[in-house]
Amino acid sequence: MFVTFVFISMLFLAGCSKSSYSTADAIEKGDITVTPSEVHNLERFEQFLQSITKQQEDKIRVTSFTIEGDPIFQDLHYDGDNIQYSYDNTNDAFGGQDKGVKTEICTTITSKGKRQSKTEYYIAGCEDHSDYYLLGVSDR
């Protein structure tokens, strides 16, 4: 009976996801793709960090997926001076009342130590004085 309940719950949650942008799509397009269990295209994130160090224009998309499979997009465009940051959770079926697109101008990406054997990266130096979580990378 419990197995049946879990199976029906999983089908219900899968049916709630209205997005057609899958993890496979994100990986194929070169997004830094974050699922609950792993990060794909991490080398692209490392290249972006090098571009900032060299003050070279670059842009990336970090796509995180909720447990239900809905994408949350974080677009970063470095212009050689600042990072134009956009956070879009409009495809999150369980995003609540805070769903929408938020944009900021920020200056850097920083790591803030480790949590659960992961180094956490944040976009920082933003106009609203907030730092925004980007992704956590497991220690190798």
Please specify the SSE layout and strand pairing.
Blueprint lengths: L1 H15 L6 H7 L2 E3 L4 E2 L1 H12 L4 E8 L5 E8 L4 E6 L12 E6 L1 E8 L2 E7 L7 E7 L2
Parallel strand pairs: 1-3
Antiparallel strand pairs: 1-2, 3-4, 4-5, 5-6, 7-8, 8-9
Report on this model:
It is a single chain. Helix content is 24%, strand content 39%. The model is unreliable at 1-15 (pLDDT under 50). The protein is of the alpha+beta class and 140 residues long. It has three helices and nine strands.
Give a brief description.
With 140 residues, this protein is of the alpha+beta class. The chain is built from three helices and nine strands; from the N terminus they run ααββαβββββββ. Strands 2-1-3-4-5-6 form a six-stranded mixed β-sheet. Strands 7-8-9 form a three-stranded antiparallel β-sheet, with helices on one face.
Largest sheet: 6 strands, mixed
For the residues shown, what is the average pLDDT?
86
Strand content: 35-45%
Give the SSE string.
Answer: HHEEHEEEEEEE
Helical amount:
10-25%
End-to-end separation in angstroms reads 40 Å
Low-confidence stretches: 1-15
Q: Please tally the helical runs, counting DSSP H or I stretches of 4 or more residues.
A: 3
Strand order of the largest sheet: 2-1-3-4-5-6
Radius of gyration: 16 Å
Mass-distribution shape: globular
Class based on secondary structure composition and strand pairing: alpha+beta
What is the total tally of β strands?
A: 9
